């Protein structure tokens, strides 16, 4: 329909409506579809009359902003005016996770993105074929097609990107229509970039990974169909440079696309090879996931006993003579060295009895023990041993043992 008809229902200063899922009630869905047909045939005046007459009818609450189906009504009306099919519900909306499972814990670094499925449902493939057929170079047309793509979810990105690449390389013949598909891919890539976690690499973006192997043949076909002129090359290089500057792809990936674009290989052959590689990678990932799911779960029995610690070596009791004890308490003091004639015994310096022997400490003469065995005083932290007196050698007074008698 003409642009003026769209502006009659949607003011030009407002952005296009965003995709929304249809109502769950089949009767309400049928009511919206019937009203859409009459609005397309009779124009905005008819819609204004219906809104005035049915303002109090809850079945027509979708015509007003407070209605629960108002977002879908605006999107369905926009699709009807532009010739686009309403987008199917995203995969995660059709198959929600079981309520019994806890939500996954957030992670700062997402895991590597597996290859998205190249297979699409018949409804999705048919609807996107109509979207590509209606695609033009206008900003509104590219915007509406991008919203249709994003509404299908990342799980369909691989199949939708494949449809765009096949149509660009092998489908339409006009240079301008091929270029419009590249413009659409650019708009989709930047929409995916806006949803990417800041700081994450392009490998974490499923949209960018879906387009990565196909953009080289697409650009090569546009360059070839445009006559391989300097003007076309400058236009396409501008897009590639923009992808590098904004971080849509790594610089090495962009240089690979540039090589594909200016190379002499047939874009159709290159695209067929890339599609075969992507399909093989997706099949391998699916087989690995199936093998992991079929692997037996670990046994819930008790864990195996831990390995016994090595036995400690037997303790060897040292001989009694090797036990170190203070002199005068457990062992008799060493014998003093012999004093030379004319020198008092206490003034004898340590003497070396033989080469390499340790010097012997000089001890003053010790008086003999008086009164028989001597028991040490009780330790402040240990009760005395009753009935077990110990016989000690003579204790020199200079040892400073409390209670010792010379």
Report on this structure:
The structure is a single chain. With 406 residues, the chain is mainly α. It contains 14 helices and no strands. It has helices spanning 3-9, 26-42, 44-53, 70-82, 91-94, 122-133, 139-151, 157-171, 175-194, 206-211, 215-225, 230-246, 251-262, 267-294. Helix 12 (230-246) runs antiparallel to helix 13. The protein is globular.
What are the defining features of this structure?
14 helices; 406 residues; mainly alpha; single chain
Tell me the span between the first and last alpha carbons. 127 Å
Number of strands: 0
Count of helix runs: 14
- Quick check: average pLDDT? 74
In short:
With 406 residues, the protein is mostly helical. Helix content is 46%, strand content 0%. 23% of the residues are buried.
Task: Give the arrangement of secondary structure elements.
Layout (H helix, E strand, L loop, with lengths): L2 H7 L16 H17 L1 H10 L16 H13 L8 H4 L27 H12 L5 H13 L5 H15 L3 H20 L11 H6 L3 H11 L4 H17 L4 H12 L4 H28 L112
Helix pairs in contact: 2-3, 2-4, 6-8, 7-9, 8-9, 8-14, 9-11, 11-13, 11-14, 12-13
């Amino acid at each position: 329909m003409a642009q003026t008809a769209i502006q009659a229902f949607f003011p030009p200063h407002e952005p296009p409506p965003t995709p929304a899922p249809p109502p769950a009630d089949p009767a309400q869905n049928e009511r919206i579809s019937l009203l859409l047909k009459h609005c397309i045939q009779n124009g905005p005046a008819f819609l204004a009359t219906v809104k005035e007459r049915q303002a109090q009818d809850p079945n027509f609450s979708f015509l007003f902003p407070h209605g629960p189906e108002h977002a879908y009504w605006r999107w369905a009306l926009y699709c009807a005016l532009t010739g686009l099919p309403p987008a199917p519900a995203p995969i995660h909306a059709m198959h929600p996770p079981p309520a019994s499972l806890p939500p996954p814990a957030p992670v700062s670094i997402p895991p590597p993105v597996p290859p998205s499925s190249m297979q699409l449902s018949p409804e999705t493939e048919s609807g996107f074929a109509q979207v590509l057929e209606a695609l033009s170079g206008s900003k509104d047309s590219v915007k509406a097609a991008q919203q249709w793509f994003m509404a299908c979810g990342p799980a369909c990105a691989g199949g939708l990107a494949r449809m765009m690449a096949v149509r660009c390389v092998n489908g339409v013949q006009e240079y301008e229509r091929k270029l419009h598909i590249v413009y659409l891919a650019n708009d989709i890539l930047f929409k995916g970039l806006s949803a990417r976690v800041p700081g994450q690499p392009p490998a974490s973006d499923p949209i960018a990974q879906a387009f990565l192997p196909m953009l080289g043949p697409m650009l090569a076909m546009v360059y070839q169909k445009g006559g391989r002129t300097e003007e076309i090359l400058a236009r396409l290089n501008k897009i590639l440079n923009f992808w590098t500057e904004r971080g849509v792809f790594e610089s090495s990936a962009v240089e690979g696309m540039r090589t594909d674009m200016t190379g002499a290989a047939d874009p159709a052959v290159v695209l067929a090879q890339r599609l075969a590689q992507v399909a093989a990678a997706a099949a391998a990932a699916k087989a690995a996931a199936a093998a992991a799911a079929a692997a037996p779960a670990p046994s819930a029995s008790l864990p195996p006993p831990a390995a016994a610690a090595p036995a400690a070596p037997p303790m060897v009791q040292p001989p009694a003579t090797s036990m170190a004890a203070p002199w005068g308490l457990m062992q008799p003091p060493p014998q003093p060295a012999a004093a030379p004639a004319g020198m008092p015994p206490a003034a004898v310096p340590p003497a070396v009895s033989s080469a390499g022997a340790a010097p012997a400490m000089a001890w003053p003469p010790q008086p003999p023990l008086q009164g028989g065995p001597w028991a040490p005083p009780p330790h402040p932290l240990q009760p005395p041993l009753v009935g077990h007196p110990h016989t000690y050698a003579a204790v020199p007074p200079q040892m400073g043992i409390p209670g010792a008698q010379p």
